[in-house]
Amino acid sequence: MVTTSTGLVSVVITNFNYGDYVCSAIQSALDQTHPSVEVIVVDDASSDDSWKRMRTFEPRARCIRVARRGQIGAAMAGFEQSGGDVVLFLDADDVLLPDAVAMLSRPFAERADVVKAQGYMLTIDRLGKRLGQRLPRRLPASGCYRDAVLRHGLLPLAHAYTSGNAWSRSFLSSVFPLPRRGWLDDYLPDLAPLYGRIESVPRAVVEYRIHGKNAWYGSRVLTQDSMRAYLEKQDWKVDFLADHVEALGLPADRAAWKRWKRSWRDILIEFVVARASGRARPQRLTRFMAAPLRAEWAKLPPAIAASLLLGLIWLLPRSQGLAVAHWALRARGGWADLA
């Protein structure tokens, strides 16, 4: 762990065919106000001119090229070359704000048990113009969530996407290597509470670019196939988390974790997929309505409102129930946005 706010911080930038954006990402990492930053850029076998553009920043940034490994493999390759006790993974289409490293590294200097610090992300368009949206809507309170993970499995807590987080080296060393399936965000946010404290910084730290190819942008499309794929993904994420918990010698009730899922929205997605396919309701009415109320951090008035809404959806005839369910899943800007 770093002991002062001036300790070395590694920024690992992962790139695949983002030649139009990678230079902005590298420059933003080099322009940090924090006094000790190393920048490592990993090109994941791009077929565009990314590699040529990246190398114009040498030797200020260390550039590495690897055979196609996906985001996770590229990130792990960069981590192996890094030396900081705090590590940021920056997607090549995003841009760090100038004080990002300083703000995200400070919690690690102040507390030895911090494994993750996260801040807000401001959306920008393809050309870098601010779109006026902050992600997520509200970060959870700083604290230790290990016991909550052991009780509930996947937690319905909002978190920053990849570029909005900083991680302790000790935590990353404990959980790497990860499977190359999926993205860093499929693993690190759910594993981090098992190892220490999560700190939420109440400031924007990164500009998150929306350009039509982002995984997040595409995930907002509400279709049967996308919802079915989402549920399958949540199941394998539960299995991965449960395997990891058991490897630590801790209890993991994977059957209950899968039954209650990450949140009541996931249970509603399961309901929609079943009913749209002509199958019976997958949950009893009482369990369906209980989903929003069971989380220990749920705020009572909105949880009661959600419970009553689920009850209405369950009781309505199939077509009307599906219409209300689709409205509910879209109401907060996208079914995959669980903030």
From TrEMBL:
Keywords: Transferase
Superkingdom in the source lineage: Bacteria
Pfam family, one: Glycos_transf_2
Protein name as catalogued: Glycosyltransferase
Family matches, as SUPFAM superfamilies: Nucleotide-diphospho-sugar transferases
Molecular function GO terms recorded: transferase activity
Classification via InterPro entries: Glyco_trans_2-like, Glycosyltransf_2, Nucleotide-diphossugar_trans
Occurrences of domain Glycosyltransferase 2-like (ranges): 10-135
